[in-house]
Amino acid sequence: MQKTYDLVSFGDAMVSMVASDHARLDQANSLELAMAGAELNVASNVSALGYKTAWVSKLVDVWSGHFIKFRGQGRGVDFSHVKFVPFDGKGTVRNSICFIELGIGPRPSKQVYDRAYSPLSFVQPGEFDWDNILGQTRWFHTTGIPAALSENIANEIIAALKIAKQLHVKTSFDLNYRSTLWDVASARKVMLQILPNVDVLIGNEEDFEKMLGIKAEGSTTGYSKIDPNTYKGVALKATEMYPNLEVVATTLRDAKTGLLNDWQTVMLYRGTYYISQRYNNLEIQDRTGGGDSFASAVIMGMLEDRDPDYIINFSAAYSALCHGFNGDWNWATRTEAEHVMNGANARVIR
């Protein structure tokens, strides 16, 4: 049966406000507006890669909600399952915002969230008809970030994932641990209910340690100088804990400076371990969204039933390219990512 969507994602979105020229927020004279939000990022990227996507959420019917809607629709994302709630004039319930400083040199990038009282935080059971929504899609994606925002959202994610599995919809979950939103104990407790319903698990080295208690051998406090082979043990342990997992995929980042990182990705795909080529000294315009680009490309590859070697190397190239754009969304094309994956240089194209 033909599905309406290739992917549906569920979560919260934000208007991000970024200080220009690597300024601190408290010294900035202007802030640049952009889109942010892991689940909408994935829907946007997968749409840009040629697939039909929808995003499910709640927004306040005010300028910030319109900004999110118009930007998302501009990338081809269906917003018909987004519920808009009235603005009360004083922001009792309000759309999420994040403030960003882009790091440079030894100073890392920094995000400051203003996400309390978002309309999705108050979601109630039955507000979304998941049988209908998920019956229309091949794939369902969400992450640990909205689960951290409120118990209501966490319960809604659990309910949606269970229905997805009943409908034989492929599911993916990006751990996305955020220490400013919840503590390790709370995150691990929720994961016990979420992960039995997940097919594809995505995260970085910190996510697996904090949210699943799986630490890679030889990993450091700063998660740098990472040997990709050590993450095979992490992925295998995750599949031992949750035998339902078909794929465990991880990004590895060595943040040498705020603008210079090494980048590599690895994946345990149905029992076989794959390592991407390594992007040494990757120059960075903005690192936010790199992990979501990786998730997007893994999903695209699996939707196309691609060879795992292609999936891991395309995903590494596509997410590496994301670091060259401002904001969370990846503006690289499939062709550009394939050229990078195949070893193309950065000579001017003309």
General description of the model:
- With 350 residues, the protein is α/β, with parallel strands linked by helices.
- It has a single domain, classed as Ribokinase (UDP-N-acetylmuramoyl-L-alanine:D-glutamate ligase, 3-Layer(aba) Sandwich).
- Helices cover 33% and strands 25% of the residues.
- The protein has eleven helices and 15 strands.
- It has helices spanning 38-48, 63-74, 130-134, 144-149, 151-166, 184-194, 205-212, 231-241, 290-303, 308-322, 334-341, and strands at 7-10, 14-19, 31-36, 53-60, 77-78, 82-85, 96-101, 110-114, 139-143, 170-174, 200-204, 247-257, 260-269, 272-275, 279-283.
- The strands form two sheets. Strands 1, 4, 5, 6, 9, 10, 11, 12, 13, 14 and 15 form an eleven-stranded mixed sheet that branches.
Second rung of CATH, namely the architecture: 3-Layer(aba) Sandwich
Q: What's the helical proportion of residues?
A: 25-40%
Task: Tell me the strand percentage band.
Answer: 15-25%
Distance N terminus to C terminus? 44 Å
Number of helices: 11
How would you characterize the largest beta sheet?
11 strands, mixed
How many domain modules?
A: 1
Topology, number of strands: 15
Low-confidence stretches: none
CATH class bucket:
Alpha Beta
Mean pLDDT: 93
User: Could you spell the SSE succession in H and E letters?
Assistant: EEEHEHEEEEHEHHEHEHHEEEEHHH
Globally, the shape reads globular
In the CATH hierarchy, the third-tier topology is known as UDP-N-acetylmuramoyl-L-alanine:D-glutamate ligase
Radius of gyration: 19 Å
CATH-level-4 superfamily name: Ribokinase
Q: Structural class per helix/strand content?
A: alpha/beta
